Amino acid sequence: MYEKLTEAKLAETLEAGIHEFAERGVEKASMASIAGKAGISVGVLYKYYSDKDSFFLACVRRSVGRLEEALKEVLVREDKVSGYADQVIRILQRHAAEHRDDIRMYHEITSIRNSRFAAELAEEIEKITAGLYTDIIRKAQKNGTVREDMDPGIAAFFFDNLLMMLQFGLCCDYYRERWKLYCGGKLPENDMVREQLLMFLESAFTFSREDVSHEGGK
Amino acid sequence: MYEKLTEAKLAETLEAGIHEFAERGVEKASMASIAGKAGISVGVLYKYYSDKDSFFLACVRRSVGRLEEALKEVLVREDKVSGYADQVIRILQRHAAEHRDDIRMYHEITSIRNSRFAAELAEEIEKITAGLYTDIIRKAQKNGTVREDMDPGIAAFFFDNLLMMLQFGLCCDYYRERWKLYCGGKLPENDMVREQLLMFLESAFTFSREDVSHEGGK
Amino acid sequence: MYEKLTEAKLAETLEAGIHEFAERGVEKASMASIAGKAGISVGVLYKYYSDKDSFFLACVRRSVGRLEEALKEVLVREDKVSGYADQVIRILQRHAAEHRDDIRMYHEITSIRNSRFAAELAEEIEKITAGLYTDIIRKAQKNGTVREDMDPGIAAFFFDNLLMMLQFGLCCDYYRERWKLYCGGKLPENDMVREQLLMFLESAFTFSREDVSHEGGK
Amino acid sequence: MYEKLTEAKLAETLEAGIHEFAERGVEKASMASIAGKAGISVGVLYKYYSDKDSFFLACVRRSVGRLEEALKEVLVREDKVSGYADQVIRILQRHAAEHRDDIRMYHEITSIRNSRFAAELAEEIEKITAGLYTDIIRKAQKNGTVREDMDPGIAAFFFDNLLMMLQFGLCCDYYRERWKLYCGGKLPENDMVREQLLMFLESAFTFSREDVSHEGGK
DNA sequence: AATGAATGAGAATTCATTCAT
DNA sequence: TATGAATGAATTCTCATTCAT
Fold it and tell me: Which residues 114-143 of A have a C-beta within 8 angstroms of B?
């Protein structure tokens, strides 16, 4: 009984936490219930994590780590935004289906009501994708596949926003309902959504007809 | 003491509620604290609202009503998406600046812990804009200013997603920090964001270059 | 609107009180609900009765008054206990059937947990029957129909106890269930109960010391 | 602080509960006050009992258990009702003197407000005595010491009613005052009451004089 | 005098956190 | 070191009573 918590047990605890936080939200999640599900005592939980909040953070980190891991699959060789986006969307759709709790948990983070904390977490979680997306766009601008008057950071932000909502739409109750409202009462198929989103993004990032005719008329 | 609850006081109570819910979230918000801030007794609060949930809904409705009121300013005569979008974005930016708590409260609704309201609220809140945006896009498709292969509902959804994130980015801690991350550490100016978002949308909704060249090659 | 409460309205209020107290018990009875049922405002209720307790007392008195009224029907000419008892039992059985709430209310009184109060009420409510029953027994002793070694007061007390339980058994949930337990699961018929109770009482009051010594002298 | 809840403490808690329920009634009894009196925290109270009702039931059961324990002392060898009754009355008189709160608590059960427990508790509490008393009477009928035209169940019920009132008369405010009223202002001595009650019962259960003379005249 | 909205003390219950074992 | 029982602050909600109208 008095044996040190194994790596595996610790992982199990985090998973139990992710599940509970995803299912009931931070406030309603119960430390006792989490410990119970993980098969450990509340005591150890508090030995490893000073309080509920810090345990929540640990869960967030695990959850986000898993998402990052998934995103590493994207072939960075891709220089065209559309090809890149296609890969990312596919991965996120699969990830959302396989790790619903992770996404719900991620949404919980966005509720954080303390800017010091928010800054720390946002940096930790979003820095990589922020940089990555911005770079892709910058490169695409250089090779002429994305319009040059677009601010790469802001464009990357828009891009990420759409992806974020894509995931929430797959996993979080309110967003699902919202999705349905726009699609005549039922969630659209992943393939259709991806196709439409790609079309939207592709258009967005390239020159619109006016611009063309404008430039053409120069 | 024993002061009659005026219309004004009732409004003040809702505002106090909106503030508390925005600041602390539904679970942590305290009915006693709200009553205290509004300068009324807990008793009346429960006279007017049967429980915390129903008071929360009343706050949400007030908050949403205010947003809808603001959105009514949009000239519906506009048939071009870009002109329409320009107006909507301006209004939302102003609204977010003036009613930060409303937006924070809106974000609160999207939380897991409030899943019990999800379907009901989503319908109530988003139905109007969903229909409106979809219509605008459909019309624009008819007059040839939006590409025809785009599903109007899904496109409207993308559009609304971007607007939603715009607002969260202005009001909610986590989203603000995320914004900063994409913009070199500081929040971008409203004007610049609007300009970029318009550009993004305009391109997105119109024919992409390939399409153009395709058509051009006809 | 601003008219004085009529006699009738006041009576209606007491009846509403009796019903509520009988149905929910003193603690759970709600002054607002009583006022509502009586069609008056809580305000007047408190104008006429200083607090819940004093209103409860007023209800008790009305309720007890009605019982006394019913008991006045007993022909006092009766000198034999059995004949007297027969009449009383019949009246109480009828009264219990017609005024269930009165009996339930009466049981509420017995819960009173303040001896000063208890003394006052007991005196008010039981004094008449106490005297009456004792007298009957005393007379019966004089004319030789009740054994002489019986203390008239104590015997009267036993008699009243049995009548009290009879009524509770007809009206109060716990006592009803208790009744059933002794009678194979269902409440016995009034006629049968009366017959048995009369037999029990008749025997109890008559068998005299002589009989005992008779046996002893055998 | 952080004292382990021993068996003894648990018992103390139940006693504190019995006292509080007896003193103030179920509704007015306060869980916090009970915990305080028992020297434990509200938390543990709720660890052991899911809510106030279930704690109340536990108290009732303890209280009833103690009474049953006491009643086990009765020598069941007794076949004559009078001898049996003598023993039971003695035990109940002693029990009431020593455990006033138990009896007050028992009275609490019979209240309207506790109707929700009525059937369950009545069965649990009274079944044993109901069966026991009925049996005794039935046996006595067989050996000719109790008149045969008496329904054993109903007779047992009358018997138990008298015992019940005996106990309430010793412990509950209202019943005490009522007692006094029948006895010239003061509670009668236990010995005297027992003697009179025995006499009453003995007579009640045996042939009345009329019956005797009736039979004699045949 | 009647009204009923407003008051606020009080009660049950929960659960993050502590600490004796 | 692990355990999980014990703690008690905090929260929601109720309702007898008051008093401005």
Answer: 114-115, 117-119, 121-123, 126-127, 130, 134
